[in-house]
Write a structure and sequence with these properties.
Blueprint (H helix, E strand, L loop, with lengths): L1 E3 L5 E4 L6 E4 L9 H14 L1 E4 L6 H8 L22 E4 L13 H6 L18 E8 L7 E5 H7 L2 H7 L3 E4 L15 H6 L3 E4 L1 E3 L6 E3 L6 E4 L4 H15 L5 E4 L6 E5 L3 E5 L9 E7 L9
Length: 294
């Protein structure tokens, strides 16, 4: 169903739980105040926005991101673009355009996006959201799935709600290294991102709504639980979050840009042929306040 958000902006719902397509925007041009409000309102309502047919440069991508906040600079150069430091490269192609083998350190780390997660949860102040540009998209998979963590929290059985209410989980960037054999973190990388504790139930600073807040690829401990109990709880919560009723699955076309709110969603990518080029450039919007426990 199409909803006209402004005179120029058209918004069409993609899934009952979350996701909407937005047309009438040219990301190569600055947003005026009315258009910004229309896009921001749609973002808060639908959590995930898809902007088709946006042939933007990396510089234009970063400039559009600045309409919503300061772009994050990722703390590892192994992932960052050499040319535009605000670009996080979700890619099996290097900066020189060459396909990297599956055992390349960058490819191995990027491949962990196949686990459910929310970006930058390991920061004391996690990011607000992100915008991902499909530069070269896959035809063999590589779709991105998003889940509505408002709805997941509301649907939790009372027994699980009691377990997460008032509790914190640890978000540890180093936990990635228990999931795959990765290049060891440098001492500088470890110092830049020490583990942090975040509430498992959070309140959105704009909408005021309550959601579950976990990030399974980073969660290695849960307050008051043994290690096996913590793993089981995170797995039980992840299984519910992955149910199709909560999930929008985006099938990429070249020059799609997808924008999501990391404060109330998780996402993952589906597997694809590692011999097929997949080049996705992401900007991440720096957060402005600590996670607010609900």
């Amino acid at each position: 169903m199409a909803v006209v958000a402004s005179d120029r902006v058209q918004v069409r719902t993609l899934h009952p739980a979350l996701g909407a397509e937005v047309r009438g925007i040219d990301m190569r041009r600055p947003l005026d105040a009315g258009t910004f409000r229309a896009v921001h309102d749609a973002w808060m309502r639908h959590l995930v926005l898809v902007f088709p047919e946006q042939p933007i440069s990396d510089e234009e991508h970063v400039a559009f991101t600045r309409s919503f906040g300061e772009p994050e600079i990722f703390h590892q150069t192994i992932i960052r673009s050499r040319r535009v430091k605000e670009i996080f490269r979700v890619s099996n192609v290097d900066d020189d355009g060459s396909l990297m083998p599956p055992d390349h350190p960058t490819v191995k780390q990027v491949s962990l996006a196949q686990f459910w997660h929310t970006d930058s949860s390991y920061r004391e102040i996690p990011c607000t959201g992100a915008l991902l540009h499909g530069v070269e998209t896959s035809t063999t998979g590589g779709e991105t799935q998003f889940t509505n963590m408002y709805a997941v929290y509301e649907a939790l059985p009372e027994s699980l709600k009691k377990q997460v209410q008032g509790r914190r989980a640890r978000h540890n960037f180093g936990h990635l290294h228990t999931l795959a054999s990765l290049r060891p973190l440098t001492e500088d990388e470890k110092a830049a991102m020490p583990p942090v504790w975040q509430p498992m139930v959070r309140r959105h600073p704009v909408t005021g709504r309550v959601s579950l807040y976990i990030s399974p690829i980073y969660n290695d401990e849960v307050e008051g639980l043994s290690a096996p109990e913590a793993r089981q709880l995170i797995q039980d919560l992840t299984d519910i979050a992955a149910e199709p009723r909560f999930v929008y699955r985006h099938r990429w076309s070249p020059d799609d840009v997808v924008m999501w709110d990391n404060r109330c969603t998780m996402h993952q990518v589906t597997p694809h042929d590692p011999q097929e080029r997949r080049v996705m450039h992401r900007t991440t919007i720096v957060g402005t306040e600590p996670v607010l426990a609900a």
